[in-house]
Hints:
Blueprint: H1 15-26, H2 29-41, H3 45-73, H4 77-84, H5 91-123, H6 130-135, H7 137-156, H8 159-186, H9 191-199, H10 208-221, H11 228-233, H12 242-270, H13 281-292, H14 296-329, H15 334-353, H16 360-364, E1 366-367, E2 370-371, H17 373-411, H18 419-444
Antiparallel strand pairs: 1-2
Helix pairs in contact: 1-8, 1-12, 1-14, 2-10, 2-12, 3-4, 3-10, 3-12, 3-17, 3-18, 4-5, 5-7, 5-14, 5-15, 5-17, 7-14, 7-15, 8-12, 8-14, 9-12, 10-17, 10-18, 13-14, 14-15, 15-17, 17-18
This protein binds tryptophan.
Amino acid sequence: xxxxxxxxxxxxxxxxxxxxxxxxxxxxxxxxxxxxxxxxxxxxxxxxxxxxxxxxxxxxxxxxxxxxxxxxxxxxxxxxxxxxxxxxxxxxxxxxxxxxxxxxxxxxxxxxxxxxxxxxxxxxxxxxxxxxxxxxxxxxxxxxxxxxxxxxxxxxxxxxxxxxxxxxxxxxxxxxxxxxxxxxxxxxxxxxxxxxxxxxxxxxxxxxxxxxxxxxxxxxxxxxxxxxxxxxxxxxxxxxxxxxxxxxxxxxxxxxxxxxxxxxxxxxxxxxxxxxxxxxxxxxxxxxxxxxxxxxxxxxxxxxxxxxxxxxxxxxxxxxxxxxxxxxxxxxxxxxxxxxxxxxxxxxxxxxxxxxxxxxxxxxxxxxxxxxxxxxxxxxxxxxxxxxxxxxxxxxxxxxxxxxxxxxxxxxxxxxxxxxxxxxxxxxxxxxxxxxxxxxxxxxxxxx
Length: 448
Ligand code: TRP
């Protein structure tokens, strides 16, 4: 066991509260902004299939692993690793998580700012298109600061009062509005082309880069690979069933992503737009949908409000990792930690905010096949670092801490007879996850 801490650690109020907060972390821009445009760039249905395989074979096992390490050690990612192996380099993995979380928060808040901007655009009936909108530094910076500020305020509110309370109300609302949008989108004339693109796989489109993109997207969308789920796991009660809760979170997250695709692609084809247009995709398609829908303005308004809120329940988990680290390891107050880490994310976010046309340099900077500062950060931290983190975490939890110890932690909640599932999990986390992730990364460096 770990050493004692003076004040009892905060805990989720209930199992359902935890599931909703973890789903809140998972469900966000990753599902509604990143998943559709990545699917569009990688050829549609074949990517969706690869994505689902990655979630089941790798995402769910890593999710369960992170949650059990968190609950066992009751710590942030750095502290959790130190509690298992006080010496050696493993704790660097924890620092990588804190760094990745802060950088992801920085550009995530920029994109989330766009959703706030779209709330305003909808209310004011502004017709400026997406590219004009994001190149305007006045609105761009304003919304970015507002969003990051909101994230800070919720995290200042703490685990139960802040994060859990918000997630409980807002996640179900998002689900219902998506359902309505799907019905509308599917009934548009010309929707069939989109359904075929999205659901009828063309396997010739699967390449090494498709698989990396699918795996990276799985880590991003499920909030894995940098310790967010270790941190959220550290607030779980001993009696909570990690296997079923983790699986429910992954399932809900995947459902929402697939639903977002069902809104976007039929409409996209109905309007004769391009699926491979990159990060602007949903911001270009959605306003079109709303403009054709009866009562579309109100629906659009609600949608962007809910999207901003879904982004908020995710961004707070990105911030929470760094905050938990500073509170546990540096013994700062929660308030100071929150303000400092927000400030760091703000500074990192400035070039991302300027990378959409305002600053020539940050908009055209080129690195490893990506153009623009925001896209580069998203690839390096939002895809590569998470995938690498997932590899190291599965090695750490499967071998260093040991799958046996993790299983003992999972079983400490007396969840009944899960022995078969736990055997499968041990096999996946020790062999399947590291081998597949390793091969995907090798492929990235062009080894094959
Ligand atoms: N999963 C969130 C989304 O889909 C983003 C996110 C929140 C995240 N916390 C994370 C991504 C931790 C990686 C790691 O929008």
